[in-house]
Amino acid sequence: MSGPDNVVWLGALSFPKAARAALADGTLRANLKHATGTIRDKRLAMTAELDDWEQLRDAGAALKKRTLRHLDTYLRQLEESVTRAGGVVHWAADAADANRIVTELVLATGEREVVKVKSMATQEIGLNEALAEAGISAYETDLAELIVQLGHDRPSHILVPAIHRNRAEIRDIFQREMGDWGRAAPTGLTDEPAALAEAARLHLREKFLRAKVAVSGANFAIAESGTVGVVESEGNGRMCLTLPQTLITVMGIEKVLPSWSDLEVFLQLLPRSSTGERMNPYTSTWRGVTPGDGPQVFHLVLLDNGRTDTLADTVGRQALACIRCSACLNVCPVYERTGGHAYGSVYPGPIGAVLTPQLVGVEHAASLPFASTLCGACYEACPVKIDIPEVLVHLRARVVESKRARLRPPTAEALAMKAARMVLAKPGRLRAAQRAARLGGRLLARDGRIGELPLPSALNGWSASRDLPVPPAETFRGWWLRTHSSSATSVKEARSDDA
Amino acid sequence: MTTRELVLARIRAALADVPEQELPERVAVPRDYRRSHADGDVLELFAERVADYRARVRRVGPERVRELLAELLAERGVRTLVVPPGFPEQLLPPGPWQLLSDTPPLGVAELDAADAVLTTAALGIAVTGTLVLDAGPGQGRRALTLLPDYHLCVVRAEQVLGDVPAAIAELDPARPLTFVSGPSATSDIELQRVEGVHGPRTLDVVIIDSGEA
Fold first, then answer.
1. Residue A472 sits in which domain range?
2. Residue B34 and residue A52: Cβ atoms within 8 Å?
3. Nearest CB partner across the interface for A312, out of B14, B135, B185
4. Superfamily for B37-208?
5. How many angstroms separate the CA of residue B107 from the nearest CA in chain A?
6. pLDDT, tens digit, for every residue of A124-149?
7. Can you give the pTM of this predicted structure?
8. ipTM
9. Is A17 exposed, middle or buried (0-12, 13-18, 19+ CB in 10 A)?
């Protein structure tokens, strides 16, 4: 399934390897700690304001469940209502399909540049790269996406793709790169966020005013009415959705919602979970084409790209309920420390760890279901109650199954478990093993910790990603014997078991 | 087999566990959340919540509206003002600015050069401090409220609803809608909110309150 797209970045390291490098980057960790801490506080304040937040979450989860269980019905209904309103609906089975459809639509307009609204779906399919191959320049217009594009970088967060960059780094990128793409950064640009936003405004304004074609994603599309919507903050979305003649929207098939009235739930859940606001600055909705207002040609590309495989897993399918708010990233202790790039996917963090392996097949992202402590903070934060820990555990089992299916000899993990069973079966064996560990551990330790062990590659999967404390000088069993040796009958019983 | 048929067939195969006779309505959706979180004075809440986004809010009686609009436009130094078709004649403030009417439609360059746009709204939402524009009379097509850097919006007290569910019930999904909650903003740099990116950087809201004199 892993195609020429960005669900899993080609050449990406496994999560433990990538995380090790990320953890060593002090600037990155400081940027992430600051940013995730800020957004966590805002989200909590906004969700606490609604005393029926849990009821809203229940409604959101149920609406998504209803949609997914009848996805074919709603998609056919959506197709009909969009078509009736003057839109053209296209179906894409995978990334290559979607890229071909969009490229052909752009080429048919005679244009060679498009402006883009931030969109996870087009990130996922690698649309910008595909358009570039056809000689079409795609300009990202969301501020964070612009930072990523100008920095020749990759997104590291669903909502704030440049969360790994601080203001000084962003100023440097703008000064260095803007001139190559269009209007250069103002001279004397400071690193004040307001000054940086102003630089982006000036840089992009000329592109908005001349753009003839826009490409967007969609936060939702209403099956009943054919209404499509984009939720945003900056107004770049409005620019792209309003000024060009042609609008091409690429949307994952799971984004459909049954009825217009369902928005009363999601427009309360999404902004508060996402940016920690009562409402985001701008939400645009449109249906087909409106004569005299906005694009007069509208294409809606419905994208599968692994979603039907995800749907087929009765435990894993709940990941398709995701509304891309990114609350789970912001509360995740693993994400906060490693950042998004370590996940090697356009979908990082807890939701990425359950979505990515399902979209591309677990064998292509086998380390991601393990990129979690299973602490459950993501589930608590999720506005549509995706039980991410449940799906993670389920996918871990699928990873093990898929490895076992491919490897005839038992895996290193299976051998280790067998050895553990043997040691733990008899107290005497455990005592001997502890004595050996006490001595061996002290030999291997450095700075009070045991790092990666010099084991053959099949065996070092465990030690490569886990530091161990040095075993204590005295075991609990030894301490008990030393301090209770006269009276403790239980110890005598235990010792009588020694073989 | 077309791609459409392929995707639909994949969906049906993936949903093999869903009984064929199951109707979508059989998947229960609990609706015991509140219809509104607005307690007390809805107008006061609306004004407070709009102001939270650093938009400026004024409440006036009907007889004072023109005067206030003129004051605000003068204060912002407006020289060219876009007024969409259908904007109530009796509210149109006198002043030295040049009026642009969008009939025939203004080009993007003209709109971009305009200092301000003066519109009505379809409705307001108190809890979220949101204005909704539906391209109706006095609001105009979407580009009009997007390119000028200053948006001055007039809303009547009775148009302000309590919360999101009432607004969604009132709005027509067939129309192009824009939900506006404060001026354009970004949190993309260190998740610190900055007002003013691509949309209007200044938003003033005038509430016409006939209950107040």
1. 412-496
2. yes
3. B14
4. NagB/RpiA/CoA transferase-like (3.40.50.10420)
5. 10
6. 999 999 999 999 999 999 999 999 99
7. 0.89
8. 0.96
9. middle
